[in-house]
Every structure is written in structure tokens, then in C-alpha cells.
Amino acid sequence: MKVILTRDVARVGRAGEVKELADGYANNFIIARGLGLAATPANLQRVEQERAARGLDHKLEAAQVKQVLAALKDKVVIIKAKASETGHLFAGLHEKEVAEAVQAQINLVLDPTVIKLADPIKTLGEYNIQIKTPTVGGVFKLSVQR
What we know:
Helix content is 36%, strand content 29%. It is built from three helices and nine strands; from the N terminus they run ββαβαββαββββ. The radius of gyration is 21 Å and the shape is elongated. The mean pLDDT is 88.
């Protein structure tokens, strides 16, 4: 049975791929758990349309990231956070908080999924924050203060 994977499945394939699988495995595991769809002509057409739309989204996203990076050039985004006497934050800062700070201070919307943090920020200080899309990347400065 041919199946269109909607999510990455270990040892089977990546999202968007069409795979030939055993009928029982496809019906009882992949389709039943929402990991894929039967590869009917209608589903294949829908997946192609979604793939084309994602291509446009990547272009729009790249333009948006370029705009944010240009606005952040030579600027430092400041986040005020509660911290202990030793400088350890009471709550770690994630991509969402960084995106909200950029929006509040620069007045540009930045999708949190393009911000790449290795780990949540847990101490006061200055950080280089990486922004990366499939086509564009860059870095800006973030200062975490009390």
C-alpha cells in the first residue's frame, strides 16, 4: 500500500515522502496513529499544493528575517528578568521570549521557530542569538539584565 508520510517515522521515511508499505503496517500503525495518509490521487494533489505553499512561506520568511537582521544591526535587544544574587534566572528564557522582546523593542514580528538556542538562557549576561532559515541566517546581540 502506498502511504504519504505526514511526519518523520524512524526507519520508514521523512514527512512528505511517498512510501510503499505492507498493508497491515500502513493501516494499523501509520494511518491509525496519524503519521501518514493513503496515497490517493486527491491526497497526492493536496500534498503537492502544501509543498508549493511552504516554498512561498520560506521566501516570505527569509525576507522577514533579512528585515529583522537589518533593523537589529548594531543594536542590542534587552530582556529584563528576575534573577538570584548569583545571576541565575528564576525562569529560563526560550525562543518565544526572545521573539517577544524583538517585537516589543524593534516592532517587527519574528517567528520563534527561526531563533536557534542550544539551551534555554539561564543566567544574566550578553548572548549572540542565531537566526536561521533554510535560505538566510544571521546573528544579533541579546542582553539579559535584572
